[in-house]
């Protein structure tokens, strides 16, 4: 068993939320629907042949077809029961890139069913300029969301633009963290380095009170991302979409994280899942982290304690069995 887990990168929606999420890829980064063909087909319960046949009608048709299967969405009660069985004491639900206000409303309502176990962070669309900052304010003040999500390459947005700065300023003023997609992306029409450690360093220097989570760990610029985490008290990284068993392979590029993640940034590494990308549960992904050649104290920090401190989640020391028992007793 891994001990308690806090997941800072949950991608969990109802059926409508999944449709919006997939349409975001279809309209702004359709290559993702090709790269993750096997995963999306498996999730939707359709064959590769059906997937490709529908894809020939266009990416939006494919996104709608996948969502229409009714197999992607999840029920909040069932989802939380699974988390409890896996020892996950808390999960951050990241808003969809380019989420609409209605999409944020639905995600907030999903998390509100179990506020002790779930928190929702707003999906923000920088293509609408200053509206993104207003949407963050609405989501925090009216919906009870506790953070925001930015994916600059999906919005064709400069991380240092005026629209981006307005979101950073708003988040700092509201006292909520931001999750940023940091590192390479798989969209051949976007710059591979749309948002990297260089941008994070500038953002952190300009907004020192803003808590920033570098989503996906900044790969392949891991060493540089580690250096930025060393420099700035409020900059953290998480490595969702990368499996620990693959990260541990020689030449993976993650060597700096294992070198400094147990020393100078041992309090800056968080755990994120993005289950759909792996076809593995949060608990299974956490077990892979626990199997790394790391001190047990470091594993505990990465999987739980760092997020508990950075995001003010009550620390707790329940075992996975106790968490599951707590769920059954409700």
Automatic annotation (TrEMBL):
Signal sequence bounds: none
InterPro entries: ACMSD, Amidohydro-rel, Metal_Hydrolase
Highest taxon in the source lineage: Bacteria
Keyword Lyase in annotation: yes
Pfam families named among the record's database cross-references: Amidohydro_2
Transmembrane residue ranges: none
GO molecular function, one term: hydrolase activity
Keyword vocabulary terms for this entry: Lyase
Domain Amidohydrolase-related: 94-311
Protein name: Amidohydrolase-related domain-containing protein
């Amino acid at each position: 068993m891994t001990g308690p887990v806090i997941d800072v990168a949950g991608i969990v929606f109802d059926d409508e939320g999944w449709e919006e999420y997939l349409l975001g890829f279809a309209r702004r980064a359709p290559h993702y629907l090709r790269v993750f063909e096997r995963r999306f087909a498996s999730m939707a319960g359709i064959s590769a042949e059906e997937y490709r046949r529908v894809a020939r009608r266009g990416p939006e048709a494919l996104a709608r077809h996948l969502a229409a299967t009714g197999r992607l969405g999840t029920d909040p009660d069932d989802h939380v029961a699974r988390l409890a069985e896996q020892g996950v004491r808390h999960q951050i639900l990241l808003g969809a890139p380019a989420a609409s206000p209605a999409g944020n409303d639905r995600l907030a309502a999903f998390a509100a069913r179990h506020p002790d176990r779930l928190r929702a962070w707003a999906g923000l669309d920088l293509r609408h300029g200053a509206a993104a900052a207003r949407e963050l304010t609405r989501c925090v003040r009216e919906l009870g969301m506790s953070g925001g999500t930015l994916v600059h390459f999906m919005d064709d947005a400069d991380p240092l633009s005026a629209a981006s700065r307005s979101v950073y300023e708003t988040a700092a003023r509201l006292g909520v963290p931001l999750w940023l997609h940091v590192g390479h992306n798989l969209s051949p029409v976007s710059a591979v380095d749309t948002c990297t450690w260089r941008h994070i360093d500038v953002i952190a220097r300009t907004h020192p009170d803003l808590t920033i989570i570098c989503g996906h760990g900044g790969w392949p610029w891991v060493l540089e991302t580690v250096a930025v985490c060393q420099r700035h008290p409020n900059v953290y990284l998480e490595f969702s979409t990368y499996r620990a068993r693959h990260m541990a392979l020689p030449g993976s590029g993650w060597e700096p994280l294992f070198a400094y993640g147990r020393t100078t940034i041992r309090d800056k590494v968080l755990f994120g899942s993005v289950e759909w990308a792996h076809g593995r549960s949060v608990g299974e992904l956490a077990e892979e982290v626990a199997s790394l050649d790391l001190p047990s104290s470091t594993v505990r920090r990465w999987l739980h304690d760092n997020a508990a401190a950075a995001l003010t989640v009550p620390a707790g020391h329940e075992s996975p069995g106790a968490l599951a028992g707590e769920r059954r007793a409700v």
